[in-house]
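## Example pair
The file below holds two records. Each record gives the amino-acid sequence first, followed by its structure token line.
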Amino acid sequence: MERPLAGQVALVAGATRGAGRGIAVELGAAGATVYVTGRTTRERRSEYDRPETIEDTADLVTAAGGTGIAVPTDHLVPEQVEALVARIRAEQGRLDVLVNDIWGGENLTEWDKPVWEHPMEAGLRILHLAVDTHLITARYAFPLLIERPGGLVVEVTDGTAEYNAENYRLNAYYDLAKIAPIRLARSWAHELGPHGGTSVVITPGWLRSEMMLDHFGVTEDNWRDACVAEPHFAISETPRFVGRAVAALAADPDRARWQGTSLSSGGLAKEYGFTDLDGSTPDSWRYIVEVQDAGKPADVTGYR
């Protein structure tokens, strides 16, 4: 097995479940040492009150061929993030890849509510979780990242820059939360570029996360059963697909060509030649525009 990231150190901030877990596992499969953070551990759950833990993610990273290290961290608490980076410095002496996947707003978002109807406390909490955490993490992780030229920062969001520029996303708080990482990636490109660093933002497609599977009452083994209720779910992808996209970026010596740009799992699959776990290459965002949003019947022919 190729291990192009052997000897490299990654931090996946927000790796308890979903895209963060998929990214951490695929970085491990490529040989990296991966620090995984989140608020849910085997001893204590976050307000999500879900069973996935950062220890489980670390074990999956190690099983995939890397070294997974779980560090409980609330990325809204600067002191905890500072201690996290200090630990990485002490144990590894380097940081090659930072993935900012911190989110936490699923249970706070009320769809299609105008700002005067959406609970303000929940809305502001969404923004704290989605924006403040990324700024705090950057503040403490970047000094270690830039000590070696070639560092990679990956912001994770929902939607490409093009799609989010043209479409209102659910409500004002969610819309702003998902635009922010796109702009942050451009900011980081400006700040890290002179130090030899590369910054991008990436979006998965319709993600078959643990929460999404639960929402439809299916598992990864029988996920297609959900297409009865939602036919467009046929374009969905596993979290490992975006994980493979990030691993491919991290292993690309010419990744600086993507500097400051908005990328997608489906788009990078065409560039790098990887597939999802079932061998398919779902191109969700092209499908969403050309089929789903266009009001056409669900048909993934030519899109996966």
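Second record, same layout:
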Amino acid sequence: MRIQAAVFDKQDGPFQLQDIELDEPGAGEVLVRIAATGICHTDGLARHGDLPFPAPGVLGHEGAGAVIAVGPGVTSVREGDHVVIGWPWCGECRNCRAGEPRYCARLGELLVSGVRPGTEAAALRRPDGGALHGHFFGQSSFATHSLTRANSLVKVPHDVPLDLLGPLACGLSTGAGAVLNTLRPQTGSSLVIYGTGSVGLAAVMAARNSGATTIVAIDRHTSRLELAAELGATHTVNAADTDPVAAVHDICGGPADNALECTGIISVVRQAADSVGMLGTCALIGGAPAGAEFTLDHLTTLWGKRIVGVLGGGGRSTQLIGALIDLYSQGRFPMERLVSWFAFDQIEQALEASYAGDVIKPIVRMPA
């Protein structure tokens, strides 16, 4: 079928709206009409080449929309269902069978190979037959339609704004899930969040729904720190004029119990790790460029300090996204305060506005 997509033709090349061809769904696949898709810095990393994804192709991995066709064997969703497109997973490897689909053994292939799973070609092509890479994070949602695997989909209620939900596929669930699924702050504990973009602010909102009683937000943007305080941070630190590690130790009366690093900046990774002490946990979720390395003090790390990486918030998409939608409906996860809206033909401006810090979470609405 003929669809429209934002195609980048070469590394660092601009997104250009083009008419392209998309295959009909095969066995286990679902065709989704995209209502809106969030824009994440990971899309920028892929276009730049720091996250390897072949050009020319179609990015986008925070899509939400309505099912318009299902392939043979699909019974979990049907035409008309509203869905968020979660991360892909094989369902067969040891980690998937153990209930950890975010850490699927085939994850690299499923996220960034650019081809249809189990094949050597994408389901996308130019009208003249020229090859395009797709299936980015199993969806390539910078398009009016997405072909995805049925097991990636999370059905959502029809009474929740569908064009708000795409960022639950990655950015917001990454921050919130790292708190709720991985760190799981104990009652009366402290949590430090480095970086208050959409991921960090989602973590702040999740922490407010946890047992943590000291929630410290750290950033260099005053406006974002003010929003963090409104969303649940008990303390804020502006790293532009304050040593954040010293400030954390002062606020917590010593090292914090937990830290969450959301920026992917290597110097900040070290600060986050130094913010926790004996038996403390530092979770890393920020996207650093490929090949980036960091160092830690060996002796203090030996004292029971845990450094853990978290992909996509951990857990299962259905459970995590479903819970966050429930919290949103109850007024306990006000994600609408993070978003700014853009038209599909403004996708380039949306990404630039995110990089510049002018918006927190850009969402691109598709044409009706």
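Notes on the second record: The first helix runs from residue 41 to 48. The radius of gyration is 20 Å.
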